[in-house]
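Backbone Fold Data
Goal — fold tokens
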Amino acid sequence: MTDSSETVRCWLVERDYNDKGLVTLAYATSDGDRVYRRELAAGAATRSRVTAAKDVDPDQLEPVEDEDTRDRYAMEVERTAEGYDPDDPI
């Protein structure tokens, strides 16, 4: 079990909307190797505060298998981190 004080900073790299009214937010580690996904109802996503970064428990992170996706996530993390503070709404 992971100590709750240990977290990994992840940055918003993707926001997908589906035809069922759900929004999936993807937050990736700086190297793009791992991702945390959060699914919300579209209405909740507009009412809740989506921030540029989240501190995530390592147990909640999934590996990113596809190399192109890892590279894309790493580039998006860099862009997001340069343009926003972690707590900025995005």
